[in-house]
């Protein structure tokens, strides 16, 4: 035993929701390497070696219920990683509402013991959430998944940016109530990351910040580079951290917001809700 063991996951059961590919798969591999038992839930085929694979469609509460019924024991870390791009039907469910439904089922069943942690993958696209907090609170107050989805569609919010703002607001709003139960909740907000999802939308996703990265001499992040901070935030080493949405974009938003990289100041301030 050493002080550094607080970064490890020995004896923990980790649930990775959306862990078939990309950042979720990287986080699942990291959690395994850190000593955890890992269950991956996904709509796609799960080939990550060493994990228990369970199919789920986050747009369907019956499918989520069926996936949860296979767990049969406590979960110490939930990594909420699934996501789809604009234009995908049910985006509001896949990117947020389905994750929330799953978490609330686990909480209602007392399946997350004290010391547990929840880690979402939000996005730099969700960082302007504070400006919309009143409307986000109205949305988040709708407990039923179907009714919340209908609200999002009716209010023209069934889109990527709103789904990620909802994640950021949920993390901030739930930090206190969850901590009273001994549970922490945080999110990372990645910049462009080289995953199947980003490649499928390469022009908008991987093109964003390309000039900044060329100036800095860095590439788009790897899935592993996003998995590391996500797994850290849910480790005992991060026991003092809850309610944060950590920007994991190699400094792009910091440089844009401060005009250190003025070419992206407008875009960054727009996404931060500063306009
Ligand atoms: N790649 C980027 O540049 C980037 C940047 C910021 C945020 N993100 C976010 O990171 C997260 C991970 O995405 P990624 O880039 O690793 O892409 P990815 O496509 O590799 O991973 C997303 C996973 O979600 C799963 N999924 C999709 N729909 C589902 C559903 N209905 N039910 C269950 N699982 C479903 C997919 O099968 C896939 O395994 C997403 O939330 C995404 O929005 C990505």
Automatic annotation (TrEMBL):
The keyword Nucleotide-binding does not apply. InterPro entries: NAD(P)-bd_dom_sf (IPR036291), SDR_DHRS6-like (IPR051122), SDR_fam (IPR002347). GO terms for molecular function: oxidoreductase activity. The keyword Oxidoreductase applies. Pfam families: adh_short_C2. Keywords: Oxidoreductase. Coiled coil: none annotated. Belongs to the short-chain dehydrogenases/reductases (SDR) family. This is Short-chain dehydrogenase. It comes from Pseudofrankia asymbiotica.
């Amino acid at each position: 035993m050493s002080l550094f063991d607080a970064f490890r996951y020995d004896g923990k059961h980790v649930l990775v929701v959306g862990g078939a590919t990309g950042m979720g798969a990287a986080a699942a591999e990291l959690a395994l390497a850190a000593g955890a038992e890992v269950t991956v839930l996904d709509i796609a085929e799960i080939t990550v070696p060493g994990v228990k694979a369970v199919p789920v469609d986050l747009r369907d509460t019956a499918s989520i219920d069926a996936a949860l019924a296979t767990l049969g024991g406590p979960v110490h870390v939930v990594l909420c990683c699934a996501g789809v791009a604009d234009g995908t039907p049910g985006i509001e469910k896949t990117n947020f509402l389905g994750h929330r439904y799953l978490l609330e089922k686990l909480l209602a069943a007392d399946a997350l013991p004290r010391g547990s942690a929840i880690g979402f993958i939000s996005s730099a696209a969700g960082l302007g959430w504070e400006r919309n907090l009143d409307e986000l609170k109205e949305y988040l107050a709708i407990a039923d998944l179907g009714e919340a989805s209908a609200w999002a569609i009716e209010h023209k919010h069934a889109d990527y940016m709103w789904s990620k703002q909802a994640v950021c607001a949920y993390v901030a709003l739930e930090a206190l109530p969850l901590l009273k139960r001994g549970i922490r909740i945080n999110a990372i907000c990645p910049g462009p990351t080289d995953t199947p999802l980003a490649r499928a939308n390469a022009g908008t996703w991987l093109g964003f910040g390309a000039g900044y990265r060329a100036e800095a001499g860095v590439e788009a992040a790897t899935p592993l580079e996003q998995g590391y901070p996500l797994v850290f935030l849910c480790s005992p080493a991060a026991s003092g951290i809850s309610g944060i949405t950590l920007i994991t974009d190699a400094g792009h938003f910091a440089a844009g917001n401060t005009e250190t990289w003025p070419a992206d100041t407008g875009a960054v301030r727009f996404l931060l809700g500063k306009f």
